[in-house]
Amino acid sequence: MTSCSFSSSSLFSFNLPNQNSLHRRPPTLPRHAIVSSTDGSSNGASSSSSPTVKRTRTEDNIRDEARRHRSASANPFSARYVPFNAPPGSTESYSLDEVVYRSESGGLLDVQHDLDALRSHDGAYWRNLFDSRVGKTKWPYGSGVWSKKEWVLPEIDDDDIVSAFEGNSNLFWAERFGKTFLGMNDLWVKHCGISHTGSFKDLGMTVLVSQVNRLRKMNKPVVGVGCASTGDTSAALSAYCASAGIPSIVILPANKISMAQLVQPIANGAFVLSIDTDFDGCMKLIREITSELPIYLANSLNSLRLEGQKTAAIEILQQFNWQVPDWVIVPGGNLGNIYAFYKGFKMCQDLGLVDRIPRLVCAQAANANPLYLHYKSGWKEFKPVKANATFASAIQIGDPVSIDRAVYALRNCDGIVEEATEEELMDAMAQADSTGMFVCPHTGVALTALFKLRSQGVIAPTDRTVVVSTAHGLKFTQAKIDYHSKAIPDMACRFSNPPVEVKADFGAVMDVLKVYLGSEELRENIQYIYNFSFFSDETESYFTYSLYNHANVSGQIKQFTWLNNNNQWNLFWSQLRQQCQVHAYCGSFGICNDKSQPFCQCPQGFRPVSQKDWDLKDYSAGCVRSTELQWSR
């Protein structure tokens, strides 16, 4: 029988900063001040002395209630379409009630708010107003988007709004992930994917579909709404259109999105066209279709969506009690979202809510990285790329519509662009999941950017950093299954955690659990242990099983095979198959004392290999016991 040994040793470790120096504590929620709002009501936190509020009549719903309390005062705020980044003397503008997507010169449009009117109130007013609406069900201000209505679509009637009370998403303190993998104590993940349809696209789609609802009530020639999509846009569009009873048309690239993403527009009743092309091809088609038919374009070429998406930036500031983070990292594909975050932060600065804005990082998949290449070239002439397949399918875009918007945002906030390979993004996703999150591959792209910027020293260990998670991990279960099953070609899947198959026998289960947990004696002194290794008696290979105290528990068996042709160890991952004995060595090279290696007796269930040597305090032969573990080369 092949013999395997069980020894203790030290693994390489990531040098973490002194945790005592990472002092910044999680923020406390602000107290909600009572303010008079433009919706004609007073909102604020209730006190113990406040009278009990009577429940509304059962025949009234929240929309009826809003109608009855509609303010009669004139709305002082407004917004219009203008050419994006127009020169100072430009007078070109359009009403938001017009169906227009491009400027006269063919460029992008932007929604421009009347900042002078908004400045009639100071920053404290806006902070208090927005805070007073959090967590309420008053229509439509309980939405994380429509709680900022004056900054989004100020002129729309509340009754025209189509909302699922989106936004208000969790700002997650990634305490264990930050400390374990990055040496950071102030790392946060903004879970925009915890939303109505499972992605941040809900934030923009509520605005766009609400405006379409308004246009249809005005008898504008809009018969439906259409989009090209890599998954999440179509899910959001179909859900909001279904809620309002508006037809939706979705064009998807065939066989390039997950089934979880595909089923959403189908279930919500959208008319779905599966086209044998990539996203860029679908985008070309939808532009041509919407120019010929009275179908409203829902892609981010339409700047209305960005008005909703920018509220996530405002929400981050709210959740930090209006303290500005140092960094915000956003995955980027079509690149509208990076501009939306910039716009949200910049409006808060311009209107006096905060005194600065964070630095932004746009993270791209290496298989679809036109912005990254543009950035690395020093912002020279932009060149689209042919996007290759990526697990981050929603950002598999080689010719992004919002390239000009993204470049403008990044150049005006001293921003950075990073990229992630497929292996890097999947490993980062798995590492995040192992600390209690369940993120999408796109978040893995953003986390990879964070890893790189930390290793380069660009982001400091005490920098308050927010990673934007754009979709729910449940949309990408197949990618996670493939990763943990090691079914992805040419990928080591270093952090995979497949189930261990054990026969239905108490002893067999106990053997596996003892290896995973260590014996009682070892667990009592776990601070001294970093891993146990299974060595074969043959020189060409050995296994190591990792059990960390200050790092992640992977539960994996690593196999290293010596390659004589290049004199190095080659890493494989596998499970033990042939039955082995387990040998436990005491201390380093069989030498131990009570101070440095207090394991000078056999663990429970083991016996000395040589009792005679053991009696002479020669522990080099170690201990041994039988096991159900299996091994194969």
TrEMBL record:
<dbReference type="Pfam" id="PF00291">
    <property type="entry name" value="PALP"/>
</dbReference>
<keyword id="KW-0663">Pyridoxal phosphate</keyword>
<dbReference type="InterPro" id="IPR050214">
    <property type="entry name" value="Cys_Synth/Cystath_Beta-Synth"/>
</dbReference>
<feature type="region of interest" description="Disordered">
    <location>
        <begin position="18"/>
        <end position="73"/>
    </location>
</feature>
<dbReference type="InterPro" id="IPR004450">
    <property type="entry name" value="Thr_synthase-like"/>
</dbReference>
<keyword id="KW-0732">Signal</keyword>
<dbReference type="GO" id="GO:0030170">
    <property type="term" value="F:pyridoxal phosphate binding"/>
</dbReference>
<comment type="subunit">
    <text>Homodimer.</text>
</comment>
<dbReference type="InterPro" id="IPR036052">
    <property type="entry name" value="TrpB-like_PALP_sf"/>
</dbReference>
<keyword id="KW-1015">Disulfide bond</keyword>
<keyword id="KW-0934">Plastid</keyword>
<protein>
    <recommendedName>
        <fullName>threonine synthase</fullName>
        <ecNumber>4.2.3.1</ecNumber>
    </recommendedName>
</protein>
<dbReference type="GO" id="GO:0004795">
    <property type="term" value="F:threonine synthase activity"/>
</dbReference>
<dbReference type="InterPro" id="IPR000634">
    <property type="entry name" value="Ser/Thr_deHydtase_PyrdxlP-BS"/>
</dbReference>
<feature type="domain" description="S-locus glycoprotein">
    <location>
        <begin position="516"/>
        <end position="609"/>
    </location>
</feature>
<keyword id="KW-0809">Transit peptide</keyword>
<feature type="compositionally biased region" description="Basic and acidic residues">
    <location>
        <begin position="56"/>
        <end position="67"/>
    </location>
</feature>
<dbReference type="GO" id="GO:0009088">
    <property type="term" value="P:threonine biosynthetic process"/>
</dbReference>
<keyword id="KW-0949">S-adenosyl-L-methionine</keyword>
<comment type="pathway">
    <text>Amino-acid biosynthesis; L-threonine biosynthesis; L-threonine from L-aspartate: step 5/5.</text>
</comment>
<feature type="compositionally biased region" description="Low complexity">
    <location>
        <begin position="36"/>
        <end position="50"/>
    </location>
</feature>
<dbReference type="GO" id="GO:0009507">
    <property type="term" value="C:chloroplast"/>
</dbReference>
<feature type="modified residue" description="N6-(pyridoxal phosphate)lysine">
    <location>
        <position position="201"/>
    </location>
</feature>
<dbReference type="Pfam" id="PF00954">
    <property type="entry name" value="S_locus_glycop"/>
</dbReference>
<keyword id="KW-0021">Allosteric enzyme</keyword>
<feature type="domain" description="Tryptophan synthase beta chain-like PALP">
    <location>
        <begin position="163"/>
        <end position="470"/>
    </location>
</feature>
<comment type="function">
    <text>Catalyzes the gamma-elimination of phosphate from L-phosphohomoserine and the beta-addition of water to produce L-threonine.</text>
</comment>
<dbReference type="InterPro" id="IPR001926">
    <property type="entry name" value="TrpB-like_PALP"/>
</dbReference>
<comment type="similarity">
    <text>Belongs to the threonine synthase family.</text>
</comment>
<dbReference type="InterPro" id="IPR000858">
    <property type="entry name" value="S_locus_glycoprot_dom"/>
</dbReference>
<keyword id="KW-0456">Lyase</keyword>
<dbReference type="GO" id="GO:0048544">
    <property type="term" value="P:recognition of pollen"/>
</dbReference>
<keyword id="KW-0028">Amino-acid biosynthesis</keyword>
<keyword id="KW-0150">Chloroplast</keyword>
<keyword id="KW-0791">Threonine biosynthesis</keyword>
